[in-house]
Amino acid sequence: MRQTKIDDFLELERRIREEVEKSREKDKILFQQAKLASLGEMLGNISHQWRQPLMEINSIFLPIEGKIILGKKVDNNEIIQAIEKLNSITKFMSDTIDDFRDFFSNNKEKNRFNILEQINSVVNIVSAGLKAHSIRLDIILKKNPELFGYKNEFSQVLINLINNAKDELISRKIKDPYIKITIFEEKNNIVVTIEDNAGGIKVSPIETIFEPFFTYQKHNGSGIGLFMSKLIIEKNMEGKLKASNKDDGAFFEIIIPKN
Ligand SMILES: Nc1ncnc2c1ncn2[C@@H]1O[C@H](COP(=O)(O)OP(=O)(O)O)[C@@H](O)[C@H]1O
Ligand SMILES: [Mg+2]
């Protein structure tokens, strides 16, 4: 009698362990899918970020070429200036790619990192795409705290939130569209808020948006961005990711305990 009870208990324990292992595997697979989906979103950002500089590169030497064709004299200074311009544009393009590569490197080490630095690399990736749609990006830094965790994942969360806001601002044809990011400290937490004026989240309950594959009224939605963002903030950084609506748009809060 006693022995069977112990056996039952051991069997139960084994099955629980098995199920936990299975669900962990599922999480891993979902996370991989999420990464792939956001790779697609990122590539979209990059192509925007590169279009303008490529056009500039195309035109830098046009005036010089024109002069040569017309048999006019070309000033050395003019050539040097064109080369300098070329250098600064290609540096910008190469910085974008570096930031991009950083996000997808499997750097699995938690580090201390500076929020502002990550925000800068995020801006390097999204700014052209926002500008193309006249979307203003305001960054209000009341504190420049350090965080501990995977810095690339943190940036990925910001990019997901920015891209979502951008999607709504564009599809709803909002006038004077903006995205505002605010960073401050509150008690023992570091708080980053991301808000927009796109009219808010139209699903109820709002929490649904964090479910894997939940996407609403989008042509190419994967429904994975917010799911992944929540995993990153809550599982990997022991923080909280919350969504709500304010009067004219959505309001996302990333709350991370200090140290
Ligand atoms: N800033 C926002 N304003 C309004 N709705 C939003 C906002 N951010 C997210 N949502 C809603 O949450 C859904 C899920 O977002 P996400 O997980 O990133 O998937 P996807 O962007 O692929 O649809 C979106 O389809 C959208 O309906
Ligand atoms: Mg999204």
TrEMBL record:
GO molecular function: kinase activity
Pfam families according to UniProt: HATPase_c
Keywords: ATP-binding, Kinase, Nucleotide-binding, Phosphoprotein, Transferase, Two-component regulatory system
Record bears the keyword Lyase: no
Family matches, as SMART domains: HATPase_c
PROSITE patterns: HIS_KIN
EC number(s) on file: 2.7.13.3
Catalytic activity: ATP + protein L-histidine = ADP + protein N-phospho-L-histidine
Enzyme class, spelled out: transferase
Domain Histidine kinase: 45-259
Name this polypeptide is given: histidine kinase
